[in-house]
Amino acid sequence: MTFTSPTPHTPRMAGDGRRETNAATVLRAVLDHGPVARSGIARLSGLSPAAVSRQATDLLRHGLLHELPEYAEGGGVGRPQIPVDLHLGTTGGPVAGGIHLGVPASSLGLVDLRGRVLARRTLSHAGVDPRTLPGTVAREMRAFLAEYTDGRPLLGVGAAVGGWVDPDRGHVVRHDAFGWYHRPLVAELTGGLGGRTVRVDNHARAIAQSEILFGRPEARRSLVHLFIGNVVDAALGIAGVVHQGPGSAAGDVAHLPVPDSTTPCPCGRSGCLEATASNTWVGETAYRRGIVPEPDVSLVVDAAAAGDRRADRLLRERARAVGRAVALLLDVLNPDLVVVTEQASVLDPEYLEEIRGAAIDLSHVCDDPERIVSPHAGPATLPVAAGTVLLNPLFRNPLQGIERLSVKAAYS
Question: What angle, 0 to 180 degrees and rounded to 10, lies between the N-to-C axes of helices 309-333 and 297-305?
Fold first, then answer.
């Protein structure tokens, strides 16, 4: 099903900045507290009842909110208060696709306006030439959407990938594992998806923004997100905004020194974070020690879950190295929250406790282990984050965003 704005596009007028800000405030209040009556939105947001009524009417007309008359509050003076909520995918509301392009495999997902996963799939692409990978992923995503969109309006597709990503230009500036340099990923995915709207960002920033939008309240004040995969990078969020830095190059922590690590790094130094703690290091170390038949971190995690003590020791070793790096980030930035995306600790809280313990032992500013957490979406973190790449601009500018997110082609 195609998605088009229910109202025709009209030129922006002088007051539209305030209108857009108020619409974003109303939408955020509903995200946080819905279902909620208009009077409740006014109390929560500080907007006047008249302003809330205008913005709610616009958001209803655009299909981002819908009314729930079955929950209307009667018995008082005047008309019953009809609550509104986000128009979710379970009630036919708009949805967003999400693609995380990983080194051994990619994740495909479909999420609603609350970042809830409606469908997801893992696409293994071992042996696929990185030069043709965007086309391969786009074809698989197109088939995935045809299967799961199920008549719901599709807003577009968000894509998240490691390395240095410029979201404004839609380029992957550098991804060493794929050998991508200044690759126009948005243009390639858009073409492969039949003209659908596509946005792209670095995966660490995407997860950080997902935490700010859908996760714990502390994340909106300040957070650091550390991503430990085959690619290791980070993101910083302050007051609800994820820092990109000049050229969108913020977050390169691959060569952050890990205290006590002597692991050689291809850069020529020893003890760099990516060389010490990446999925590549875990897989290769486990293979070299005879723990798994091939160098795959997922096999190591599975072996530990099945009771293999050698696999468990290796994962705890990795967790402590990550914790030592977290301590450095805590001491430099002192955020309200540190979110760590690391496969074993996302699946088993015992490894998160190892990360916390090593961090608290070394940090000079943090003595509260509860400030170090795994992503709120758990195993669905990657597709949710990818979908957030598309949804976050919509929540910031909902009226302009919904006009721009018109879909040019339908899946059949």
Answer: 110
Phi then psi for residue 68, to 5 deg, are -120, 75
Its pTM surpasses 0.85: yes
Residues 255 and 232: beta-carbon distance below 8 Å: no
The tens place of each residue's pLDDT in the chain, 412 residues long, gives 445 444 444 444 445 689 999 999 999 999 999 999 999 999 999 999 999 999 999 999 999 999 998 877 655 554 568 999 999 988 899 999 999 999 889 999 999 999 999 999 999 988 899 999 999 999 999 999 999 999 999 999 999 999 999 999 999 999 988 999 999 999 999 999 999 999 999 999 999 999 999 999 999 999 999 999 999 999 999 999 999 988 888 899 999 999 999 999 999 999 999 999 999 999 999 999 999 999 999 999 999 999 999 999 999 999 999 999 999 999 999 999 999 999 999 999 999 999 999 999 999 999 999 999 999 999 999 999 999 999 999 999 999 888 776 433 333 3
Q: Residue 249 in 3-state DSSP? A: coil
Helix%, strand%, coil% for the chain, nearest 5: 45, 20, 35
Check the CA dihedral 360-363-367-371 and report its sign.
negative
Q: How many Cβ atoms are within 10 Å of 396's Cβ, its own excluded?
A: 17
End-to-end CA distance of the chain: 8
Vertex 291 angle, CA 287 and 294, to 5°: 40
Which backbone phi and psi does 374 adopt, to 5 degrees?
Answer: -90, 160
Report how far residue 290's alpha carbon sits from residue 276's, in angstroms, rounded to the nearest whole number.
Answer: 19
Strand, coil or helix: 57: helix
The phi and psi torsions of 146 (rounded to 5 degrees) equal -60, -35
- Judged by DSSP in three states, 230 sits in coil
How far is the C-alpha of 101 from the C-alpha of 125, rounded, in Å?
Answer: 10
Q: How many CB atoms lie within 10 A of CB 15?
A: 8
Which domains, from first to last, does the chain contain? 16-87 (1.10.10.10), 91-207+381-404 (3.30.420.40), 217-375 (3.30.420.40)
β 65-67/84-86 pair status: antiparallel
Cα(300)–Cα(282) distance, integer angstroms: 8
